[in-house]
Amino acid sequence: MDTESYGYLGRLEVVSKGRVLVYDSILYLVNSVDLSDNNLSGEMPVGITSLIKLGTLNLSMNHLTGNIPADIGNLGWIESLDLSMNKLSGSIPQSMVSLTFLNHLNLSYNNLSGKIPTGNQFKTFVDPSIYEGNAGLCGCPLPTGCQDNEGAPQVPSGDGGEDDDSKLEKLQFIISMVIGFCAGFWGVFGTLAMKRSWRHAYFHFLDKVKDAILDFVSAIGTYLQKRS
C-alpha cells in the first residue's frame, strides 16, 4: 500500500490506488498502515496503539522523534512492524513482548538504547540487522552485552576490589587468631603435658596463688569484723 497523505486525530485518510479512503468511526478496524518514506516528523501518536486490529505498521524512513509508545503492546494482532530509519529514542517498550503474532520487526537506525527485551517472539529475532544503527542498545542478538541490573545505579568497579580486600583481611585476622590460640594453648599446656617437673612446679605455683588469695580475703574479712 502506497500512502500519500496522513492525518491522525480520530480520523485517518489514506490515498491508495487512486482512491481516498477515510477511516473515522471504524478507525480501530484498520489493519494495514504504510506511511514509509515521507517527511513525517514529531513523536509517534500514542493513539495509534488503539488500532487493535492492525496487522502491518510501517513508519520507516521518516523523521519521527521521541519514544516508542509504551502501550504499543496493545497491538495484539500486529504481524509486521517497521520503525527503521527514524530518530526514535529511549528504550524498546517491554510491552512489545506481548506481541505474539509479530513475525517481522525492524528498529534499525534510530537512537534507541537499553536492553533488548527477551521472551516470546523476541527469541526468534536473532538477526542483528533488526537493531543495528542504535549505538545504545545491548543484549542478544547484538554483540554488546548489558550490565547486570541495568537501570540501577552502577557500583564503581573499585568498590568491588575494596570488598574483596576487606574479606581477605577478615579471613587473615581469623586465621591469625586461630594460629595464636593454638600456639598459646600448646605452648603452655603442651609443655606441661610433656615435662613432669614443670607440671608439678606449675600446679605448686597455682596452689601458692590460691593460698595467697584466700589469706587476703580472710584478712579483709577479719578487718571488717573488727570495724563493725
TrEMBL record:
Residue stretches spanning the membrane: 173-194
SUPFAM superfamilies per the UniProt record, alphabetical: L domain-like (SSF52058)
Primary localization: membrane
Subcellular location: Membrane
Gene Ontology CC annotation, any one: membrane
Keyword vocabulary terms for this entry: Glycoprotein, Leucine-rich repeat, Membrane, Receptor, Repeat, Signal, Transmembrane, Transmembrane helix
Recorded topology in the membrane: Single-pass type I membrane protein
PANTHER family (alphabetical): LEUCINE-RICH REPEAT-CONTAINING N-TERMINAL PLANT-TYPE DOMAIN-CONTAINING PROTEIN (PTHR48063:SF81), LRR RECEPTOR-LIKE KINASE (PTHR48063)
Family: Belongs to the RLP family.
Protein name from the UniProt record: Receptor-like protein 12
